[in-house]
């Protein structure tokens, strides 16, 4: 028995060399252009040590209350229930007395201040209070007092 069409019996081969080259080129391209980004919400939270005592006054947040009249003018300030009037120098002196005038060391963030204001208080008084508690200039040196400041929800 003779087969008449020998051309049909030949194998059709696919050349895979060029396909492998393209796959490796794409792989190299994606590896080289991949950028690693930090995860969102990755916060470095420092928890207090177990068994620590809250007797140290710098462990507790200081509370500064700023009261205003209807026009938004500052009427009184109080820090941890101590009335300070409207004098920001007296506020700074009170903070220096509570902290001891020692600047926080590199590993320690120092005390934390929570500012509680009336809803209609003008911003200039809040800025003056932040300036008074954050530090002062002693000659050519800057003395830092409180660096961690947070705000309570304004009262109506």
UniProtKB/TrEMBL annotation:
The chain crosses the membrane at residues 20-37. It is a single-pass membrane protein; Single-pass type II membrane protein. Its main location: membrane. The keyword Protein transport applies. Coiled coil: none annotated. InterPro entries: ExbD. It is found in: Cell membrane. Pfam families: ExbD. It comes from the Bacteria. Keywords: Cell membrane, Membrane, Protein transport, Transmembrane, Transmembrane helix, Transport. The keyword Protein transport applies. One of its GO terms (molecular function) is transmembrane transporter activity. One of its GO terms (biological process) is protein transport. GO terms for cellular component: plasma membrane. Belongs to the ExbD/TolR family. This is Biopolymer transport protein ExbD/TolR. It comes from Rubripirellula lacrimiformis. The lineage of its organism: Bacteria, Pseudomonadati, Planctomycetota, Planctomycetia, Pirellulales.
């Amino acid at each position: 028995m003779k087969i008449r069409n020998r051309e049909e019996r030949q194998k059709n081969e696919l050349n895979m060399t060029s396909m492998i080259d393209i796959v490796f080129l794409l792989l190299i391209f994606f590896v080289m252009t991949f950028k690693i980004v930090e995860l969102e919400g990755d916060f470095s939270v420092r928890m207090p040590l177990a068994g620590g005592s809250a007797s140290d006054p710098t462990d507790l947040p200081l509370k500064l209350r700023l009261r205003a009249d209807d026009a938004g003018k500052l009427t009184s300030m109080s820090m941890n229930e101590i009335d300070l009037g409207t004098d920001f120098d007296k506020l700074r002196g009170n903070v220096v007395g509570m902290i001891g005038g020692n600047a926080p060391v590199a590993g320690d963030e120092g005390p934390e201040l929570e500012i509680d204001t009336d809803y209609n208080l003008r911003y200039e008084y809040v800025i003056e209070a932040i300036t008074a508690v954050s530090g002062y200039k002693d000659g050519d040196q800057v003395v830092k007092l409180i660096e961690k400041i947070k705000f309570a929800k304004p009262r109506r």
